[in-house]
């Protein structure tokens, strides 16, 4: 199993490079993961998405699709792609410490 060192902690990753244990995540780690993913700073809009994704995961056991995020988080699809370039569903889930959404390739 692959690992990553964030904030002095060695954490296990799943086969897709996401945290293997979402309980290991915290907001400080989100900033560190975002930087590794090419996002130098998390804005209020980033946090709107990250908090929404984590809330859905907690309630349903799986991260939501990009379509659902754009419909229910008040951040439209175009903005999602600008906030999380290269795949907003997968990247938002990764920064939020969650597994890759099933709808993502």
Polypeptide structure, described:
With 105 residues, the chain is mainly alpha-helical. It has one domain. It is 47% helix and 8% strand. It has 5 helices and 2 strands, in the order ββααααα. Strands 1-2 form a two-stranded antiparallel sheet. A hairpin with a 2-residue loop joins strand 1 and strand 2. The longest helix has 17 residues. The protein is globular. The two termini are 21 Å apart. The mean pLDDT is 92.
Give a quick rundown of the structure:
With 105 residues, this protein is mainly α.
Which keywords apply here?
single chain, 105 residues, globular, 5 helices, two-stranded antiparallel ribbon, mainly alpha
Q: What topology, given as strand order, has the largest sheet?
A: 1-2
- Residues in helix, %: 40-55%
**Low-pLDDT windows of residues:** none
**What is the C-alpha radius of gyration, as a whole number of Å?**
13 Å
Mean pLDDT reading: 92
Q: What's the number of helices?
A: 5
Please summarize the sheet with the most strands.
2 strands, antiparallel
Terminus-to-terminus distance: 21 Å
Question: What is the strand tally?
Answer: 2
Shape: globular
Number of domains: 1
What structural class do you assign from the helix and strand content?
mainly alpha
β-sheet strand percentage? 5-15%
N-to-C series of helices and strands: EEHHHHH
């Amino acid at each position: 199993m692959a690992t990553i060192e964030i904030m002095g902690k060695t954490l296990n990753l799943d086969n897709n490079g996401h945290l293997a244990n979402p309980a290991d995540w915290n907001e400080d780690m989100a900033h560190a993961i975002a930087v590794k993913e090419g996002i130098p700073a998390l804005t209020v809009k980033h946090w709107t998405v990250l908090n929404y994704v984590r809330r859905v995961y907690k309630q349903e056991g799986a991260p939501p699709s990009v379509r659902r995020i754009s419909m229910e988080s008040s951040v439209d699809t175009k903005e999602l792609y600008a906030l999380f370039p290269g795949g907003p569903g997968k990247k938002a889930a990764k920064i939020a410490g969650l597994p890759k959404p099933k709808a993502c390739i």
